[in-house]
Amino acid sequence: MALDQPGFPIIRTAGIDGMLVSFGDRLDEAANRAAIAFRAEVERAGWEGVQESSSSLVSCYLRFDPLALSHADLEARLREVMASRDWLQADLPAGRRLHRIPTVYGGALAPQLGEAASEAGLSEAQAVEMLSEAQVRVTALGFAPGQPYLGLLPEVWNIPRQSALTPKVPKGALVLAIRQLVLFGVTAPTGWRHVGQTAAELFRLGDERPFLLAPGDEVIFPAVSEAEFEALRRAPGGGASWEALA
């Protein structure tokens, strides 16, 4: 359910060549949907002088050429777009995908499933059932090329981060905290619990679409056995598949 976040949306400058439009100060479904939809509208407008745009959990960022477009002119255009509709009720843009990424839960490949399940008050079997059936949205990309944050999971998964870092989780690790999942595109440390392991290729240099996932896409992580997973390691894209969302 969307949260009421008074005072939003707001527009702020971000250095000499950036503007940030924020729809909240914390993640909720409506603010994330607004950020993704607003960014799509700005991209569709194709304003001269705007060099790139991106969306985060609750904001849309624009980088522009201040010699071609002034802060005041860009802010005026953004305010026009903001006033054109209720962005917290906006539809997500067309062209989104539903991905299925096979995942091993628990065991030696994802050793913190039991700990995460205990934090959520669930058995491991219940945790696997919930996580493998959940359909989550890519709320943002960040930290590494093509690496997604996904959510929101049911409230039972509002579990804290760890008090200390896990020194390293492998590429393809599915980690969990605060009702969100992150799918790691690189080997890295994390404070989130490692609950699943995939063989997905998130970044493919040279492809027409180098990032497998995009903000607004949805993902299901169906459970597979360790034996099935070993076969998927050799399959194109780690066995991930997708279909267009209506």
From TrEMBL:
Superkingdom, natural source: Bacteria
Keyword Hydrolase among UniProt keywords: yes
Single Gene Ontology MF annotation: hydrolase activity
Domain Carboxyltransferase: 9-213
Keyword ATP-binding: yes
Keyword vocabulary terms for this entry: ATP-binding, Hydrolase, Nucleotide-binding
Gene3D superfamilies in alphabetical order: 3.30.1360.40, Cyclophilin-like (2.40.100.10)
Coiled-coil segments on the chain, per record: none
Alphabetical list of PANTHER family matching this protein: 5-OXOPROLINASE SUBUNIT B
Protein name: Allophanate hydrolase family protein
